[in-house]
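seq as requested:
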Amino acid sequence: MSESNLTYWRGTSFYINPTSRCTNNCLFCVRNFSDGVFGFNLQLSIDPTPEQLVDEIEKTWNDRFDDVAIVGFGEPTINIEGTLASIQKIKNLSSINVRMNTNGQALLIHPERNIPSELAEAGLDRIQISLNAPDPDTYFRLCQPSFGRMAFDSILEFAEKCKPLMRVELSAVNIPGVDMDACRSIADRLGVEFRERVFKGTEGSLEGILRTLRS
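struct tokens:
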């Protein structure tokens, strides 16, 4: 892998990569093990402009795609203008539902904006918010957010604000020592869906994560 990719795909699924920047430094993140996925390089030196993203979508879009997601190597809402433009472009090309994966910290990243409403107005149909922990302390140790422990409660607030506007799903990576039932209970309390995700890192990296959680 060499040239960076703003879009990538596998089978009939199409993905958009608006940024490599993130407000988290998750111990389990795929960025710790690879420069990309599916043979695509997702490491970006700078954020693409909305125009660059739209242009790349136009170049690589194919009518065979039946699944579209805003999910790359960073937090999409950091490059919010590019993300909004990408959603709007897909909606102009197709009637397919668009989903986005996010760490849920948009209220902290853009405190002056109503990001849930902007995403809904752009046409976002579904949002998957990475919860990954049942409490602020576990989240802080596992995801290492730049916003500190306040990030956890902000994620829950973001989920509540998105709920009336689109389909919301909380997710958590199934790592030994992280209480999946407690994570699922948070989703149940908020009245949103829950998805348990498989850890895709190496055995050695998992051992390091477990040591951190036990410390």
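The chain has a mean pLDDT of 94.
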